[in-house]
């Protein structure tokens, strides 16, 4: 089994070099967050962006101020159902000095389970990239994604 995204990294990039679609995606996200648009369709129409471009970039581009201020992240895991996997997963997260705020686990079906964790990362002693890489290296983790961040 290959682990996609082990080399996933994040960069800080100056706005003037971003493609127009990324800038418009940020504008549309802001309209939605502020309640100035009631739907994705309305937001993308206001900023003259296609819905497909919005969905392509919405989970990959963020304003710098939100990344700096927000210290809560939500992670989604797709795990093999084996004894002790959740305990090992939580142990690794705790070893990175993250405070686990919520845990949601589905009932395992066909040997797989979904787990969603909300974490306070204020005291985290590794980078998010490093923690994600460690999590992806766990043998029973088939997938890990950052669902969102917010305070």
Structure explained in plain terms:
- The protein has 151 residues and is of the alpha+beta class.
- The chain has six helices and four strands.
- It has a four-stranded antiparallel beta sheet, covered by helices on one side.
- Helix 1 packs across helix 2 and helix 1 packs across helix 3.
- The mean pLDDT is 86.
Describe this structure in a few short sentences.
It contains 6 helices and 4 strands.
Q: Which features characterize this protein?
A:
6 helices, alpha+beta, four-stranded antiparallel sheet, 4 strands, 151 residues
Structural class by helix and strand composition: alpha+beta
Q: How many helices?
A: 6
Q: Which percent band covers the strand fraction?
A: 15-25%
Using only C-alpha atoms, the radius of gyration works out to 17 Å
Order of helices and strands: HHHHEHEEHE
Overall morphology: elongated
Helix content, binned percent: 25-40%
**Strand order within the widest sheet?**
2-3-1-4
Low-confidence stretches: none
**Multimeric status of the protein:** single chain
- N-C termini distance: 35 Å
**What's the total count of β strands?**
4
| Main sheet record | 4 strands, antiparallel
Question: What does the average pLDDT come to?
Answer: 86
